[in-house]
């Protein structure tokens, strides 16, 4: 009798467990589908971006958003038959907003890192870049790691960025100044407060060519430090259906679109 009762209890537990899993799966699927339905119902999709990361997301002289990621966002919205609504925040806040569903996608020259990937889902990379250093000091311009990695050398970079992580890892002894955006970094660098600026190669290049008073400043790709960096779009980790939609768009856009050639786009904005 005890064996029969035990068997009945076990079957009941299994039944409850299977039922709960089945219900959870249905609720998850419903939640994933509802996100896509929601943006279609609204008629727009919320795109998180900083507006401070050339050539991915930046403002032109009239204050309008431009860049590779702005083009991608508008093209994605167009394929869905809706509009792209841009929400500008700093990188750290964008991640929080994505988790809290304030935005649907982060498109902002967003580097794929292990730390970020523990909380968010990244699409396949659509751009490869790396870190560079901009300075007027010969040893820094050459990327002399031993010379740069001293407390006497002051480097500026954007706070809470992958560039800051790179700086701390490769030049732990250097004195670091962090700023909220590239404009503030530029002011610190060209005022002489900092000896060099570390950022994405494209940012350094644009900063150099766009500044008429750059004097004998120049930039150097820090490729010798194996700093390859991959850029992707990020979406909420609990929405695989939507992630799949965005990821497939990213994978095919550069092959099919006549308007957007991602690997060539930054040249357009550099001119």
Describe the structure.
This protein is α/β, with parallel strands linked by helices. The chain folds into 2 domains: 134 residues, 3-Layer(aba) Sandwich (D-Maltodextrin-Binding Protein, domain 2), CATH 3.40.190; 97 residues, Periplasmic binding protein-like II (D-Maltodextrin-Binding Protein, domain 2, 3-Layer(aba) Sandwich). The chain contains 11 helices and 15 strands. It has a 5-stranded mixed beta sheet with strand order 11-10-12-9-13, sandwiched between helices. It starts with a helix and ends with a helix. The relative contact order is 0.16. About 2% of the residues have low confidence.
Which secondary structure elements does this structure contain, and how are they paired or packed?
Blueprint: H1 2-42, E1 44-49, E2 52-53, E3 57-59, E4 65-66, H2 68-80, E5 83-88, H3 91-99, E6 105-106, H4 114-117, E7 120-122, E8 127-129, E9 131-135, H5 138-141, H6 145-148, E10 154-158, H7 162-170, E11 175-179, H8 182-190, E12 196-200, H9 201-210, E13 218-221, E14 229-231, E15 234-236, H10 240-256, H11 262-270
Parallel strand pairs: 1-5, 1-6, 10-11, 10-12
Antiparallel strand pairs: 2-3, 3-4, 7-15, 8-14, 9-12, 9-13
């Amino acid at each position: 009798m005890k064996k029969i009762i035990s068997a009945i209890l076990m079957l009941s537990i299994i039944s409850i467990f299977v039922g709960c899993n089945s219900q959870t799966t249905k609720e998850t699927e419903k939640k994933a589908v509802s996100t896509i339905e929601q943006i279609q119902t609204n008629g727009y999709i919320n795109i998180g971006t900083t507006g401070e990361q050339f050539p991915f997301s930046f403002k032109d002289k009239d204050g309008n958003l431009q860049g590779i990621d702005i083009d991608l966002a508008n093209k994605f919205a167009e394929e869905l038959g809706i509009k792209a609504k841009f929400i500008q925040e700093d990188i750290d806040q964008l991640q929080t907003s994505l988790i809290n569903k304030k935005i649907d996608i982060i498109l902002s020259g967003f580097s794929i890192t292990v730390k970020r990937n523990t909380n968010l889902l990244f699409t396949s990379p659509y751009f490869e870049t790396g870190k560079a250093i901009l300075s007027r000091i010969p040893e820094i311009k050459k990327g002399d790691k031993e010379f740069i990695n001293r407390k006497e050398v002051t480097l500026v970079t954007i706070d809470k960025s992958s560039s800051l992580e790179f700086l701390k890892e490769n030049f732990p002894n250097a004195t670091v100044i962090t700023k909220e955006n590239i404009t503030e970094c530029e002011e610190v660098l060209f005022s002489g407060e900092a000896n060099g600026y570390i950022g994405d190669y494209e940012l350094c290049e644009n900063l150099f060519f766009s500044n008429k008073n750059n004097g004998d400043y120049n930039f150097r790709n820090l490729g010798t430090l194996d700093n390859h960096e991959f850029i992707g779009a990020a979406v909420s980790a609990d929405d695989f259906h939507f992630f799949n939609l965005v990821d497939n768009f990213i994978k095919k856009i550069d092959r099919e679109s006549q308007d957007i050639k991602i690997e060539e786009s930054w040249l357009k904005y550099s001119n």
